[in-house]
Amino acid sequence: MVEDEEEEINSSGTVEENDPRKSCCDLLFAPIQWLKMLALEMHWSFVFGVVVVYGISQGLGGALSRVGTEYYMKDVQKVQPSEAQIFKELLLFPGLSSLYGVSSLMFSQFLGSLGVISMLILSLHEKLHLAFALLSLTAASAGAAIADVTIDACVAQNSISHPSLAADMQSLCALSSSIGALVGFSISGIFVHLIGPMGMFGLLAIPFGLVLVVGILLDEPHVPDFSYSQVNQKFVDAGNAMWTTLKFPNVWRPCLYMYLSFALSLNVAEGMFYWYTDSKNGPGFSKEQIGFKFSIGSVGSLLGAILYQNVLKDHPFRDLLFWTQLLYGLSGMLDLMLVLRLNLKFGVPDYFFAVIDESVSQLIGRLKWMPLLVLSSKLCPSGIEGTFFALLMSIDNVGLLSSTWGGGILLHILKVTRTQFDNLWLAILIRNILRVTPLCMLFLVPRADPNSSVLPAEILGTEEEIDSLETKNIELLSLVNSVDNDR
């Protein structure tokens, strides 16, 4: 009898452990528990700032801006694909200059207001000259860039004080951005069809207005009796510290690899977009189809962030970058098959193949980008982590700028225009070959994993400085003070 009772207890315990309902609940609440853990470790205001800037401003607003700008350049300004590609990348210049405004929240508030005004001008002026349109788009992009860099500084600081959570913080940024982009792209095609690209810019005033809100909520610590005559000296000291850091091989070698990995991956996206929407020489996708294609691509990006967070975040940088760079080059062959219409020979419709192509490209692109972000946060020395992270992001932006302008020049040389796409396949083939060339330079990347330190001991400072740094978190100070003081 006793043995029978023990067997019943053991069998019931096994049933409870294998209860599928419990497993589903654990799976459902796992992201919530993860967010709670980050909020406890970093403070809830940090998580809030990341979600607002990356999710709403960068993800949602970036998705609406991308589709709206594509159709604005094509249908309103009527420029060639090579010109549209070069003009659009002028918007990266605010990201290059954001290095100098990383700690200026007043500057962020000003540019946030300027972004709202710029979007309203684009939406209300029917015959705006191309130069003024580019100026307005650049001003709006500057406001978003300053907000991004401000949050990036918080991420870099917390990555140093909590090195074991560096990958988790980058995953939070990536997930927020991907979910926001998924929502934005899902509604972008519908809104472009209903209100046009100019109406889309009016709608964009809302997420750009949130840049202003973040600039207000973020509060820089006030230093009493601060001597503003020392500002120039502080700039000189910061510059010297950055130069000293960059001279270490452990720092400049990964920076060089990051630039080359972006610059050599030529961007011919505008040529593909014009081909997608051409009804004579291309598949002639509608606005709704374009928006839905991008939204499914965001699902791929989201899956990439989830895959990195749960499976790949602890793998060594060099090993992970080898496979992601290789897959990135191979994924470009899907574009080549689509342009050559090889998919039709296998009975696969153009739109279905284009959606699969977009999702696979976004997934692999996210997997390639995530370890580079974590590595960048690991390269930032204490004291100038925000400014140095902005410098690293500027290097990446220069790489993207080189890639896009190189792709624009390639489209121009191969005579890919608004209506001629005969050599688009050759541009894609050249791009795919160049995508795998960074594999030859992987020796520049350290073999370390994300949980270990990359910087030399002399940069990290003394043990006392590191110990004191571990108790320091970045918070949205105005919110923290107003709420915590009421308790």
From TrEMBL:
Q: Which CDD domains match?
A: MFS_FBT
Q: Where does this chain mainly localize?
A: membrane
Its annotated compartments are: Membrane
Record-annotated membrane-spanning stretches: 44-64, 98-122, 128-151, 172-192, 198-218, 256-277, 289-308, 320-340
Query: Which stretches are annotated as coiled coil?
Result: none
Q: Which Pfam families match?
A: BT1 (PF03092)
Query: Which portions of the sequence form the region Disordered?
Result: 1-20
Identify its membrane topology class: Multi-pass membrane protein
Tell me its family. Belongs to the major facilitator superfamily. Folate-biopterin transporter (TC 2.A.71) family.
* Protein name according to UniProt: Folate-biopterin transporter 2
